[in-house]
Amino acid sequence: MSGVPNKGSHQSGLWLWSGFSAMRLIVALLLGAFVWLTVWLGLIAGQLGKPHADNLWVREAYDLKRTAAEALRGERKVLLVGGSATMFGVSSPQLSEALGLPAVNLGVNAGLGTHEIPRQVDDLIEPGDLVVMPLEYRLLLWDGIPSYVTLSWALEHPQALLHWRWKTLLAGLWSLPLDRVLGGYQSFDPNQLPLGPYGAHRLDALGDQVGTAGELRSAAQLAALMQLPPEQYDVLYQESTLGLMVWERWWQRWRTRGACLVVVPPPFMFVSAYETDRYSAFFDGVQHRVEERGVRYLGHPKEGFFPVEAMFDTNYHLTAESRVVYTRWLAGALRSADLGCLPGKAQEDAL
User: Fold this and answer.
1) For 24, how many CA atoms within 13 A lie in the half-sphere containing its CB?
2) How far apart are CA 161 and CA 184, in angstroms?
3) Residue 30: HSE in the Cβ half-sphere, 13 Å Cα cutoff
4) Angle between helices 92-99 and 320-335 (to 10 degrees)
5) Considering the chain, what is the average pLDDT of its residues?
6) Please, which residues bridge with residue 262 across strands?
7) Residue 19: what pLDDT?
């Protein structure tokens, strides 16, 4: 019956054809992914090291703060290291008067990341200096996932990428916005950029943020503060260790150099969610996690809590009035901690 089609042969042919089609699809997808990745990496590589408007205010702020610290080269001093919680939260003249040592505020932007912030201040730290670190919780307990600010800074300063783990690099490649990469190819005139709320033009000679009186906060800023959801630090950073490992290496370096180091709670906006058992466990554990890395932690994170009315424009930025309150607490904690690195009179006055 040669005229009757062979059903089994027909089905076998369909199976082979479908298998061949599936294989071609897989190959095409893999080839497309390879081409996409090659183009993406090429775009990134082509603008590495080029300045970007994102980072201008950070560079200018660090230039001002470094100048202030360099003016005290060879003197014992207090160096305040951290992000913008430090920039907004500490009054350098008030702290200097309380401790009997000149103070410089080196806080800029926590978004630069756990690798870069200590690197920016490393060469300013000298024997006998007191390094006070009101580190934001993401900065202190980083899990290796880079923020947009971290990525933007690293593209302009590619040497930073040499210190990143593969997890951080892959997360960066996945989340990096196309417009930031393309922006690296665009030139800009720094003198033509609008002056924003942050930067050297909003700092005093010691690096403290100015223009933050409560009366200058707009109704929109206050409304935005009141609508901020609680952070998810208890979920993200309860078990993270990478940030502490990075800080530990810098802390060992600075202690070997002869500096005196302390970590303190940053000023931070309180919301009721931070009273839950899970969040209480997170805050209660911060001191131990720092001190097992060999550095004193003064106080409890809750001592840095402030109500929404005390904040200026973010949950880490105090108003000028609240900065006085936080600095008073900070000075008292430092003077009563028996650090052994304060002038005799300041230590005696605390007793």
Assistant:
1) 6
2) 16
3) 6
4) 20
5) 91
6) 132, 296
7) 56
Residue 206 tokens, joined: 């010691």
**Amino acid, res. 223:** A
The token pair at 321 is 């009035």
Q: Report percent pLDDT > 70 for the chain.
A: 91
DSSP state, 273?
Answer: G
The CA distance from 268 to 150, in Å, is 21
Distance CA 301, CA 306 (A): 11
Kindly tell me the sign of the dihedral angle through the C-alpha atoms of 294, 141, 245, 131. Answer: negative
Q: Between β-strands 296-297 and 305-306, what pairing exists: parallel, antiparallel or unpaired?
A: unpaired
Q: Is 1 helix (H, G, I), strand (E, B) or coil?
A: coil
Q: Which CA distances in Å does 227 have to 170, 212, 242, 319?
A: 33, 20, 31, 18
C-alpha dihedral, 245 to 250 to 255 to 257, nearest 10°: 150
* Integer angstrom CA distances of residue 123 from 79, 108, 247, 251, 306: 12, 16, 16, 13, 33
Output 303 or 35, whichever has higher pLDDT: 303
- pLDDT attached to residue 351: 45
- Maximum C-alpha span of the chain: 113
CB 112 within 8 A of CB 153: yes
Average pLDDT over residues 80-101: 98
Confidence grade of residue 302 (pLDDT, cut at 50, 70, 90): very high
Counts for the chain of helices (H) and strands (E), in that order: 15, 7
* DSSP SS3 for 132: strand
| Amino acid, res. 263 | V
Name 124's Cβ contacts closer than 8 Å, sequence gap at least 6. Answer: 66, 69, 70, 79, 106
H or E segment and range at residue 257: helix 242-257
Closest by Cα among 108, 113, 165 to 139: 113
Give the DSSP letter string of 230-289: PP-HHHHSSS--HHHHHHHHHHHHHHHHT-EEEE-PPPEE--GGGGSHHHHHHHHHHHHH
Opening angle at CA 107, ends 237 and 294, nearest 5: 55
Q: How far apart are CA 150 and CA 172, in angstroms?
A: 9
Q: How far apart are CA 95 and CA 228, in angstroms?
A: 30
